[in-house]
Automatic annotation (TrEMBL):
Keyword Oxidoreductase set for record: yes
Family: Belongs to the UDP-glucose/GDP-mannose dehydrogenase family.
NCBIfam families cross-referenced by the UniProt entry: NDP-sugDHase (TIGR03026)
UniProt domain UDP-glucose/GDP-mannose dehydrogenase C-terminal: residue ranges: 303-400
Reactions this protein catalyses: UDP-alpha-D-glucose + 2 NAD(+) + H2O = UDP-alpha-D-glucuronate + 2 NADH + 3 H(+)
Keywords from the UniProt entry: NAD, Oxidoreductase
Pathway entry: Nucleotide-sugar biosynthesis; UDP-alpha-D-glucuronate biosynthesis; UDP-alpha-D-glucuronate from UDP-alpha-D-glucose: step 1/1
Protein name: UDP-glucose 6-dehydrogenase
Enzyme class, first EC level, given as a word: oxidoreductase
E.C. designation(s): 1.1.1.22
Source organism per UniProt: Acidiferrimicrobium australe
Length: 416
């Protein structure tokens, strides 16, 4: 449904994969041109795919969403969601198309939402269909200029569905496309799309700000970005939520760069925001622990797993774990910590010889460093040692189902 940039690429590529595809659009002139193999956009490889699909009889174009939906096993919504005056996505076209195709789809048809839509839009589509059909989110990650390549050689395929069987059927459509498949719920799939684009926007804004700093101090931004790009951490790593970043470099260098920019006459507000968010994250963890303790940690024992700023090191410098613990001590808590690299006491806290001892009579256990050994500890023993069954896991190490079986109330970072 829709022969625009996303819809046309999706239709042509699905036909290339061997499926029988009918693409519907309201623009009669566009449909007529496409039926003759003439595409309205310049996109490498797309013209050839459209013509190959037409010649093989696997691709056709019709006017209207309803005729395209007749007899379809899958209905891909690839229609515009223009930005409203308040910045939100306008869902009216999606709703109109869903209402049009709802009565014409078969009983087992699956509606696939490929348009960029607000989180929760699968529910909107379900209501608009006017009948009970599976609605699956399958966000697109196509770059203009390489859309065909991105569809056929994607970095990942994201499927969001409440119905596992429907999710598997949609995954099967991409058979032969070698890529990781992320199967999740619809809100998460929709959020992945927005989060991915927001992150890319952040990277662009960051490098633009760095370019401004380079201009002020006389550096070469091309060589700066070349040097940055070889750092694998700037690629896929460092996307794990936690209690904040620390260590010997990031806090110091970030603060220094802000000052360097200021001295050169540039207000590096983006980086100031990054630093502020980091401090806020640490305070949020403190608040989570206090909330888990019933609203106050005064005269209560708190167990802390992890002291170093990250696993695999004994470095305590600027460790977010220590910041969180210090705040809890300031709030009246008695903290006993465990870290594989530390045995001697530290100011303001006791250090236990093993993780179970740290939990003795604790009202809350907070996991602060991502040491792998914390994944495999016996939660039943932990529960027997603690005064009350509350865990705040800032690193995502504790398996929620295992925590529930052991009788724990578990809270994390970025989790329901």
């Amino acid at each position: 449904m829709g022969a625009g940039y996303v819809g046309l690429t999706t239709a042509a590529c699905l036909a290339h994969l061997g499926h029988d595809v009918t693409c519907g659009d309201v623009d009669e002139q566009r449909v007529a041109a496409l039926a003759d193999g003439v595409i309205p956009i310049h996109e490498e490889g797309l013209q050839e795919l459209v013509r190959a699909g037409l010649d093989a009889g696997r691709l056709r174009f019709v006017v209207g969403a309803g005729p395209a939906a007749d007899g379809a096993a899958f209905a891909f919504l690839c229609v515009p969601t223009p930005q409203g005056q308040d910045g939100s996505a306008d869902m009216r076209i999606v709703q109109e198309v869903a209402a049009e195709i709802g009565p014409r789809l078969g009983q087992d048809a699956i509606v696939v939402n490929k348009s960029t839509v607000p989180v929760g839009s699968t529910r909107v589509v379900e209501r608009s269909l006017g009948r009970r059909l599976a609605v699956v989110s399958n966000p697109e990650f196509l770059r203009e200029g390489s859309a065909v390549h991105d569809f056929l050689h994607p970095s990942r395929i994201v499927i969001g569905a409440d119905d596992q069987a429907a999710a598997i059927r949609v995954v099967d459509l991409f058979d032969g496309v070698g890529a990781p498949v992320v199967v999740t719920d619809p809100p998460t799939a929709e959020t992945i799309k927005y989060a991915s684009n927001a992150f890319l926007a952040t990277k662009v804004s960051f490098v633009n700000a760095i370019a401004n700093v380079c201009e002020a101090v006389g550096a070469n931004v091309r060589e700066v970005t070349l040097g940055m790009g070889y750092d694998r951490r700037i690629n896929s790593e460092f996307l794990r939520p936690g209690p904040g970043w620390g260590g010997s470099c990031l806090p110091k260098d970030s603060a220094a760069l802000v000052r360097i920019a200021e001295d050169a006459g540039y207000d590096f507000r983006l980086l100031k925001g990054v630093i502020e968010v980091n401090a806020q994250q640490q305070e949020r963890v403190v608040a989570k622990v206090i909330r888990a303790a019933g609203g106050s940690v005064r005269k209560k024992r708190v167990a802390a797993w992890g002291l170093t700023f990250k696993a695999g090191t004994d470095d305590l410098r600027e460790s977010p774990a220590l910041v969180v613990i210090d705040r809890l001590v300031d709030a009246g808590a008695t903290v006993t910590a465990y870290d594989p690299t530390r045995k001697e006491p530290l100011p303001g806290m006791a250090v236990a010889a093993d993780p179970y001892d740290a939990c003795e009579d604790a009202a809350v256990l907070v996991v602060l460093t991502e040491w792998d050994e914390f994944r495999w500890l016996d939660l039943a023993i932990v529960r027997n040692r603690m005064a009350t069954p509350h865990i705040v896991d800032t690193r995502g190490l504790i398996e929620p189902a295992a925590a529930r079986r052991a009788g724990f109330a578990l809270s994390g970072v970025g989790l329901p």
